[in-house]
Design a protein that fits this description.
binds magnesium ion, five-stranded antiparallel β-sheet, single chain, four-stranded antiparallel β-sheet, Creatine Amidinohydrolase, 15 strands, about 30% helix, alpha+beta, 4 helices
């Protein structure tokens, strides 16, 4: 069921989203060669829980053991932070995080270059981020989900990247994942019609190689089938009469 949020509930999500945006900025400023993904997870937990008295939405969600998903290079999403995973110059790190307040959640992700990365990885990062912004240009009250997916896919493929199909965006509110499904591909003018005050997480996941994926034996981490690097960029947005408001910048 797709829910339309009240102005009061959107205001709660706006406050949660601000904490989440600040958390991701802190991680972007902090992540350096030599750190472990576990250290980043602890920094995010402390910032969300101790500094801001908010809820890390992913911790214990479906049994997930951490505040952050940390995924490196060919890992697309759902990597588990670890003391053994040390960041190295040239890696592409994806951090995905959720913040909840007063029963409402927000979800966002960034791709972070660790030191200097290759020109191919740099382009992948930039195209992935820009594909999100190309997507939201078509959104407003009455816009269709296929038009959003089409805009993201068209931009990604025109720039030589492939779009992961099995992992998609989603509605968000009292739980992290709600209806509707929000694919990063689609046909213009097709799909469900969005309306003002719906809240969705839009999250293009683009690969430098093929679009196919696999899951690792840990039961969580998703990787590219061909081992090529992947990037991820996500924000929670609210649909408005004439566009969107991004809640997690
Ligand atoms: Mg999400
Ligand atoms: Mg996410």
């Amino acid at each position: 069921m797709v829910t339309v949020k009240s102005p009061e509930h959107i205001e709660i999500m706006r406050r949660a989203g601000k904490i989440l945006g600040d958390t991701l900025r802190l991680l972007e400023e902090t992540a350096k060669p030599g750190m472990t993904t576990k250290e980043l997870d602890e920094i995010a937990y402390d910032f969300i829980v101790k500094r801001n008295h908010a809820i890390p939405s992913f911790l214990h969600y479906d049994g997930f053991p951490a505040t952050l998903c940390t995924s490196i290079d060919d890992e697309i999403v759902h990597g588990i932070p670890s003391k053994k995973r040390v960041l190295k110059e040239g890696m592409l790190l994806k951090v995905d995080c959720g913040v909840g307040l007063e029963g409402y959640h927000t979800d966002a992700a960034r791709t972070i270059a660790i030191g200097e990365v290759s020109p191919e990885k740099r382009k992948l990062m930039e195209v992935t981020k820009q594909s999100f912004f190309e997507g939201i240009k078509v959104l407003k009250d009455g816009a269709r989900l296929g038009t959003l997916g089409h805009a993201i896919q068209t931009y990604a493929e025109a720039n030589g990247m492939s779009v992961v199909r099995e992992l998609i965006g989603h509605g968000i509110g009292t739980t992290v994942h709600e209806d509707p499904d929000v694919p990063n591909y689609g046909h213009e003018g097709r799909g469900m019609r969005l309306s003002a005050n719906m809240t969705i997480a839009i999250e293009p996941m683009l690969n430098l190689g093929g679009k196919e994926i696999c899951q690792l034996a840990d039961g969580w981490t998703i990787v590219t089938a061909d081992g090529s690097p992947s990037a991820h960029y996500e924000n929670t947005v609210v649909i408005t009469d004439d566009g969107v408001e991004i809640l997690t910048l």
